[in-house]
Every structure is written in C-alpha cells, then in structure tokens.
Design goal:
mainly alpha; five-stranded mixed sheet; 20 helices; 5 strands
Length: 502
C-alpha cells in the first residue's frame, strides 16, 4: 500500500522519525549530546594535560606498534584492542602529546556515539545529563586520553545496552542490531572477559524470554563478542595452548581469581590511586567517597521511579548490566584500580540522571524547591571533589612519569644506546623512554633468565634498575653501579664498553 500523510503510524514509526521525515538536528536535542561530548574532550585537554608521559600499562600497549623501542612483554590478561586503537598515531610518531590529543578527540566521539544509542528511550536532556555525570568523574577524565582499555569497554557497554533496548522493542530496526554487534565487538576487542560480564544480563534475557522471537538479537550479541575476541582467542591457542590455559594464566597474574572482598579496596583507590595492589592505607575521606556510596541508593531510587511509571525494563536492564560488570572487580579479585569500574559507572549514569531529573521536577511547591536545591548543592560539591582529585592524580602521575624520563636520559648520558636491555624496577617505562627493550627474569612477566642476561651483557648494554645500592642480582654484582634520578643502575660490561664509564 502506498504510504500517505494520513496513514496510520506503525509501531516502528512511533519509536522515532523515519529517515525521510527526520526532524531538524536542533529540534531533536542532538546538540545536547554533542555539547557534552565536546566538553568532555576539551576538559581532558585542559585538565589532564597532553604532556603527561606514558604509564606502565600504556607503555606495554603502545610499544606493540611503536618504532621507538622494542615491544614490551604482553601478558595473558591483556588484549590488543587498545594497541590497534593507538596504531594510527603510535606507529609513526613517538609524541605522547599527539597521542593524548588523538585519544581525547576519539574518546569524545565515542561518548557521543554511546549517548546517541539511547535516543528515544529517555528524554534527550536526561541522556545528556547522564553523559555529563559519567564524563565528569575524575576517573573518566583521567583515563579518556590514556592508552587504556577500560574507558572503551564502558563506551561499548553503554552503546550495547541502548541499542539492545531499541532492537528488543522494534525488531524492524536493523540499525539497532548493528549497533548491538558493534558495541559488543568493541568491548570484546578491548577486554573479552569484561565484555562477557557486561552482556550476561542481555544474554539471559534473550534466552529466557521467547528466544526464537529474539534470535536476531541473540545472533548480534554472539557475533559481536566473537568478532571482537577472535584475535585474543587465536593468540590464546598459539601462545598458551588454548582459551582455558590463557584464562588460567591471567588468573595467576591477577593473584588468583576467587572470592575476595575488594569493596574496601575500591574505596581506598577513589582518592586518586591508579592501582591499589597491595591495597593498604586509609580509606579516602568522606567527601571523596560520598558519591560512590550514594550511587547504589540513587540506582534504587531510579528503579522505584521506573516501576511507578511503567518503564521498568528501560531502567532495570542497564542497572543489571552495571552490577554484572562490577561483580568481578568487587568480589573476585584481591586488589583494586578505579578504572576497573568505568563500565559500571557508564551504565549507571543515565538511569541515575533520570532519577535526579524526576526528583527535581516531580514534587510541587516547597518540595520541588527543596529537591532542586539539594540536588544542585550535591552536584556542585560532587564536581568540586572530582576536579580536586583529578588535579592531584594528574600532578602525581606526571611527576612519576617525568622521573622515568629523566632516568632514561641518565642512561643515555652513561652511553646506554639501542640496542640495549633494561630489567628490574620500573624497567618497562624507562626502557621504552630510552629506546631499549625491557626484560624480566622473574614474576608473571618473566621472559628471560639470569644466565642469558649475563651473556647478553658482555656484548651489549644491559641495565639493572634498583631502588637502593648494594643489592644487585647475583649476575650483576660485578657490574658498575651508577646513581640515577629515580634510583640506581648497574651497567653491564657491554654498556661500559660503549662509553658508560663512571
């Protein structure tokens, strides 16, 4: 039948405007989402500072494609998604500032894509507010421009759930199915195990409620997971003997996965610690952890409000995925890093923003004024805390990275030039800055032996980094000690022969 302007709208057309009748960009509120994404990118460039050097894990990922230094050891838990993401810049430039700008812009675009996946499910201003809540966390701003996978799992997870809800309510929307596949592939590309945890509630829902009806949706989820994890799986069989063996190796590196209570560890890390392992010391101050403690309460409020307005699924599903994403990092590992929970925060954000919006607009009279005041004061205090923690984290991290750079410069002045090897201490970032390879004789990243290092040290520069003098490994006891910016170094005869005297 020929479509006319008087035709009765179908369910599909009720979900949103068609391609031929799409309303103007401004009238859809699209600019709200673009503004949040643009502000996120600008804040990264202004507050995180592109000149901040590469961290230890970043160095491992970037070194896989960089021509500046040999690739660092790539351990079992890692996936190569972030390495491929930085390849367009890191493969030809050693500029950390350029890489930071590239990632800041890319992370803004990723946030915009994830927020667009939710259009039509919540009011655009609520989606933008949720994006702003997530983007303003110090953890999000800190890791957005870094070569780390957790932010991208968060973006992929949020987009996946948004597209999933669209595809579930309207089976004619093939674009939503492609979005589900793309979101799950992005997560699995970055961290396959995280992708599985995020999608568990989605898979459970599809399989438990009329699986035949949602066969395409199931295929989109499975295809995305498989496509993103293919390289990781192939590498598991080539280097580890199979997926099970790689997972076992990853578990050993992470201290043995099992029942642990890392909730308190996460509270300790919220003050700006990049990695809390071992996680000792005091819990961060009450103003710093207040938002974290309020988050489950706001999520519960969002669910109650959604149930009253008959929008339970729209709120329950992202909250379920957020909880599922958080489980391994709260209860299955014995240490903490704030970045681990970024996927959970991204999925909490929009339902929490919806709850806050309804708390502000639902009451009338004095109750409405009181609610608006409380929310405004709370958000202002929250932002002040986030930016304060961010500033301290950036300053501390930048100082640490500069020490690594000065240590590498000290080695070059001692005559340590490529080809060379660095082991011990902060060998990974120092070696990369010096253009050397990093090697390890023990621990989870062991890739050589003391005997091999002793032999190699006779023909080329080998450096052992230590925090204190007088305690080098046995093979380096006759090597020359030198005081460096970040500690001490023992240089092999091969290094001395190239000019590393005194």
């Amino acid at each position: 039948m020929t479509r006319t302007s008087n035709a009765t709208p179908t369910r599909a057309t009720q979900q949103g405007p068609s391609a031929t009748t799409r309303p103007p960009w401004r009238s859809t509120g699209e600019w709200w989402l673009a503004a949040v994404a643009a502000a996120f990118t600008l804040l990264q460039l202004a507050l995180v500072r592109p000149g901040m050097g590469l961290g230890w894990d970043e160095t491992v990922y970037v070194s896989q494609v960089s021509t500046h230094a040999p690739a660092a050891f790539f351990s079992a838990p890692r996936a190569r998604g972030i390495t491929l993401l930085v390849a367009p810049v890191a493969s030809w430039s050693s500029s950390t500032a350029l890489l930071r700008v590239y990632l800041a812009v890319l992370s803004g675009l990723g946030l915009y894509w994830a927020l667009r996946a939710w259009r039509g499910l919540f009011p655009v201003r609520v989606i933008a507010a949720g994006g702003a809540l997530f983007a303003s966390l110090w953890i999000t701003l800190f890791y957005g421009p870094q070569a780390m996978p957790n932010y991208w799992v968060a973006v992929g997870g949020s987009a996946t759930v948004g597209f999933f809800l669209h595809a579930r309510s309207d089976r004619t929307r093939r674009g939503a199915l492609w979005g589900v596949a793309a979101g799950t592939a992005l997560m699995a590309w970055m961290r396959p195990t995280d992708a599985v945890w995020v999608t568990l509630p989605l898979l459970a829902l599809v399989l438990s409620v009329r699986p035949r009806r949602h066969l395409r949706l199931l295929l989109a989820l499975v295809t995305g997971l498989a496509a993103g994890a293919t390289e990781w799986i192939v590498e598991a069989y080539v280097d580890y003997g199979g997926v099970g063996a790689r997972l076992a190796a990853a578990s050993r590196i992470q201290g043995g996965l099992g029942l642990h209570n890392a909730v308190v560890d996460q509270l300790r890390s919220l003050g700006g610690r990049a990695l809390c392992r071992p996680c000792t010391g005091a819990i961060a101050s009450p103003p710093v952890i207040a938002w974290w403690l309020a988050l489950p309460l706001l999520a519960a409020a969002a669910l109650v409000i959604a149930a009253r307005t008959r929008r339970t699924t729209l709120t329950l599903l992202p909250l379920a995925c957020a909880a599922s994403a958080a489980v391994p990092y709260l209860f299955l590992i014995g240490y903490a890093a704030p970045r681990f929970l970024l996927p959970a925060y991204a999925l909490f954000a929009i339902p929490v923003a919806d709850a806050l919006a309804r708390l502000v607009t639902a009451p009338s009279g004095r109750r409405r004024t009181l609610a608006a005041t409380v929310v405004a004061v709370g958000l202002a205090g929250h932002l002040a805390v986030q930016f304060d923690v961010l500033e301290r984290a950036v300053s501390r991290t930048t100082a640490d990275h500069r020490v690594w750079g000065r240590t590498a410069a000290d080695l070059r002045r001692l005559g340590v030039d490529p080809p060379c090897l660095v082991t011990g201490g902060d060998s990974v970032p120092v070696a990369f800055a010096a253009g050397c390879a990093s090697v390890h004789t023990g621990g989870h990243d062991a890739n050589t032996t003391p005997a091999e290092l002793a032999r190699t040290g006779r023909r080329m520069p080998v450096v052992v980094l230590t925090a204190h003098p007088g305690h080098p490994p046995s093979y380096a006891r006759t090597w020359q000690p030198h005081r460096l910016t970040g500690g001490y170094a023992y240089l092999s005869p091969g290094a001395v022969g190239k000019g590393g005297q005194g």
